[in-house]
Write a structure and sequence with these properties.
Layout lengths: L4 E9 L5 H11 L3 E12 L4 E6 L2 H12 L4 E6 L5 H13 L5 E3 L14 H11 L5 E2 L3 H8 L6 H13 L4 E4 L11 E7 L5 E7 L9 H14 L4 H17 L15 H4 L1
Length: 268
C-alpha cells in the first residue's frame, strides 16, 4: 500500500490541540502518511501556555537529514518557525530536495492580533519562504503584516493578496477576520489563485471555545490534498469543508479553549 508522505515543520503542542500534533491528525484523516520536524516545544493546555523552548539548531538539521535521506516527501507545510536560522534551514532543505508542494502557514500573529515571533523572523519568512510557496495561508492580521496594508473591505483583501503574490507565493488564501461577519452570520476566506482568479469561501462562524488548531488543520488539509493530486482550489475547498465540520461538533476536552474535532467529518 502506497500513500503520499507529507511533512510538517512546526512546533510541538503537548496538549495535542495545535502545532505538529494537529497537522499529524489531519494528515491521518486525509489518508496521507505524516512526517514531522519539530522546531520548538510548548508546555501548555486549554487554559494557556506555561512554558516553551526552541530546539537546538543542530538537532533540527539532523531531523531534516533523517527525513530526506529516507522518505519521499510529496508535500510539506510549516507552522511555528521562530528564528531566521530555522527559516533559512527550512528553505535550504525544501529547495535541495525540490519539494514543489509547499504550503506556508505563516505563524506570525494570533487570530486576535497578537504578534508571536520577532520582526527578524517575519522578515525572513517574507524573503525566504514566500518565494518558494505553492500556497500561503495567512490569517487576517498576518495578511496585513505581509502586505503592509490595512484591510477594511473585500477590495482590500484582493489588494493584499496581490501584494503577497507579488512576493512570490503562487496562491494566496487569506482567512477572514472573525470580527467581519456578514448579515448571514458568515465569515469569508479569499483565495487568489495563480491564474489571477479570486474565489470566496463562506462559512458560518461557530459560537464555540473549541478552536485550538484551526489554522494548522486548514493548511495541513490543503497540503495533504495537494500531495494526493488535487488542484489548489479543490484542496482549499476540501479543507474548508473539513474545518467547518471540525468546529461544528465539539469535543469535551479541556476546561477552557479546547481542540477542534478532527472526527467531525465522520459525524456529518
Amino acid at each position: 500500500m502506497t500513500v503520499p508522505q507529507v511533512l510538517t515543520i512546526a512546533g510541538s503542542d503537548c496538549d495535542g490541540s495545535a502545532g505538529a500534533q494537529a497537522d499529524l491528525l489531519t494528515f491521518f484523516h486525509q489518508q496521507t502518511y505524516g512526517l514531522s520536524i519539530m522546531t520548538s516545544c510548548v508546555a501548555g493546555n486549554s487554559v494557556g501556555i506555561q512554558d516553551s523552548t526552541d530546539l537546538p539548531h543542530d538537532f533540527i538539521v539532523n531531523e531534516f537529514e533523517s527525513i530526506f535521506s529516507d522518505f519521499h516527501v510529496a508535500g510539506a507545510k510549516t507552522g511555528m518557525l521562530s528564528s531566521p536560522d530555522v527559516i533559512e534551514v527550512t528553505r535550504y532543505y525544501l529547495e535541495r530536495y525540490q519539494v514543489k508542494n509547499f504550503v506556508l502557514d505563516p505563524v506570525i500573529m494570533t487570530k486576535h492580533g497578537a504578534q508571536l515571533i520577532g520582526d527578524k523572523a517575519v522578515s525572513a519568512i517574507i524573503r525566504k519562504l514566500i518565494p518558494i510557496s505553492l500556497c500561503i495561508t495567512p490569517n487576517f492580521y498576518e495578511a496585513q503584516v505581509l502586505s503592509g496594508m490595512t484591510i477594511k473591505s473585500e477590495q482590500d483583501y484582493y489588494s493584499a493578496a496581490l501584494t503577497i503574490q507579488s512576493e512570490g507565493a503562487k496562491n494566496v488564501l487569506i482567512k477572514g477576520s472573525h470580527d467581519d461577519v456578514d448579515d448571514k452570520g458568515q465569515i469569508t476566506d479569499y483565495l487568489l489563485s495563480e491564474d489571477g482568479q479570486l474565489k470566496q469561501y463562506k462559512k458560518a462562524l461557530r459560537p464555540t471555545t473549541h478552536i485550538n488548531g484551526t489554522g494548522d488543520t486548514l493548511s495541513a488539509c490543503i497540503v495533504a490534498e495537494i500531495a494526493k493530486g488535487s488542484p489548489v482550489a479543490t484542496a482549499v475547498q476540501t479543507a474548508e469543508d473539513y474545518l467547518l465540520n471540525a468546529v461544528t461538533w465539539d469535543l469535551n476536552i479541556g476546561s477552557k479553549f479546547g481542540p477542534i474535532n478532527h472526527w467531525g467529518i465522520n459525524i456529518s
